[in-house]
Structure formats: structure tokens, C-alpha cells
Amino acid sequence: MNTPHLPVSLIGAPTDIGAGSRGASMGPEALRVAQIGPILQSHGLEVADRGNLAGPSNPWLPPVDGYRHLAEVTAWNRAVHDAVHAELALGRLPILLGGDHCLGLGSISAVARHCREDGKKLRVLWLDAHADFNTNVLTPSGNLHGMPVACLCGHGPQQLIEIGGQVPAISPKWVRQIGIRSVDAGEKRFVHQMGLEVFDMRFIDEHGMRHAMELALATLDANTHLHVSFDVDFLDPDIAPGVGTTVRGGPSYREAQLCMEMIADTGRLASLDVMELNPALDVRNQTAELAVDLIESLFGKSTLMRDRG
């Protein structure tokens, strides 16, 4: 059930401000080197590259009150929010090229705001090795890339949780987390307490990616905006070494392809984040090329030979 896609806007957010290692700031350029724009155009999409957003540089300081670089993270997320919201208002499909995953806060708060204005429901697929549901009390590191989902659900510092104009920006019931396999103990309790729906690797091992995605995509309808927040560390590090927080035991190439193809089959994809690509840790840009390959599948490149007519 592939519907014609909206025109696409690429938005670079070159910062590692929320991360624990340097290098994700080079992610947008690596995705461009891997030809993300021309490859999407080859599928008949209209693609505009909006260039890179600007924001404060990374001061690389220790945490204050459980948060590292809070002022800088806030500035970057405001810039992301405004850019993503502007593209949605133009009827375009924004692809945020990260950057570390703290920027998912700005992106998804903009999507949630757009859905409120348009009277649409929102479904967020969070493809990640980590739940990113820490708070300043729970976090072992203070790195804000471990907190965006909690912030979106209203648990975080005032200046971050208010970015989309409504607190909380989203309900935990709108989120489906897929591929999770590294969660801090306190964070795990908080995830259960808030009722997030998580399809972790144990679930995927036992039931298969197909069943996980059927459940994650259930009840989507024509009035649902589907947002995919794709952290490249979702993938197994054997195939995607270019991330700062590798966790063994992630989805294989085929499992990841199936995940993306089933999202494409819904015809509902309306916004996308591609996060945590770290070329400094990559091997000949293979992780960026794999990410672009999977994004192609999100936009309808299918490995299927049989006619689904």
C-alpha cells in the first residue's frame, strides 16, 4: 500500500552536544557523502537539502545538576524544532540528519505540535539500542542524548520539556521502542512505570521482527502521522560500527531491512530522524552507506520480487 511520497527536506544538525563521545557532529556530512539526496531522488522523490543548522559548539564540560551542556542542548533543540516545524508546515517530509539523539526532542516536539495544529494522531517509532528515558536523577553520565524520550513525556528540565509549546509534548502511549538492549536499572523501572511499549531484542529473538513490527504499526490509520527516530546504534555493531555507543546483539541486516520495508508498506511515514552516526568511529563510511540503504527501504525500495498487486 505505497502512497506517493511528500517532497523531502534534508536538515543537517552537526552537533555531538548531548553525547558522551565526539564525532556525531560529522554525521550529516557522512550521510551526504553516502549520497542520501541523489539516492532518494532516484526513487522519484523531490529532495531539497536545507543545509546545516547552526548552534553553540561543544564545550565538553562535566555535568551540572545531572545535565551536561544543558544551555547548548536547549539552543540546538530549539533550532531543530523550528526547522522541522517549518518544513511540516510547508507540507514536506523533514529528514533530520544528526547529530546525537538528544535532538530527537526538538524534532519530535515539532512533529507533535504540527499534529496538534492539524488534528492528527501521532505514532513514534524509536529504533534504538537504548530507551533514552533517563532523568538527571537516574543518569549515570549526565549526557542528554540518554534523556530525550523522558523529556518528550514531560520528565526533564523546564527549558527542554517546553520547547514544543505543550507539556508533555507527547504521551508515552504514542511511542513504540524497537531493538532496545541496553537500559540502566533505574531507567528500566521508570520505563515500566510510564507504560512505554518496548519491543526489546529478547522479544525480537523470541517472536521475530515481523511480529514486533506488526504490533508496533497496529491501528495506524489515514489520520496518523508516523515519525521514525532511527538511532544508528539500533543496528548490530558488526554491520554498523560507526556509532559512539555500540551494543552487541542488535538487529541483523535482514531484520533491519524488514523493519524498514514494513514501515514503508504502511504509506504513513511523514518525518524521520537519522541519529548518532559517528564517522570518526566508522570504517570507510560503511555505516553511513548502510543507513542510507535502509532509508531507501523506508521510502519504498523493496527486496520483494513477487507482485503484491
Automatic annotation (TrEMBL):
PROSITE patterns: ARGINASE_1, ARGINASE_2. Its EC number is 3.5.3.1. Binds 2 manganese ions per subunit. It comes from the Bacteria. Pathway: Nitrogen metabolism; urea cycle; L-ornithine and urea from L-arginine: step 1/1. Keywords: Arginine metabolism, Hydrolase, Manganese, Metal-binding. InterPro entries: Arginase, Ureohydrolase, Ureohydrolase_dom_sf, Ureohydrolase_Mn_BS. It is an enzyme of class 3 (hydrolase). Its cofactor is Mn(2+). The keyword Manganese applies. One of its GO terms (molecular function) is arginase activity. Pfam families: Arginase (PF00491). It catalyses: L-arginine + H2O = urea + L-ornithine. Belongs to the arginase family. This is Arginase. The lineage of its organism: Bacteria, Pseudomonadati, Pseudomonadota, Betaproteobacteria, Burkholderiales.
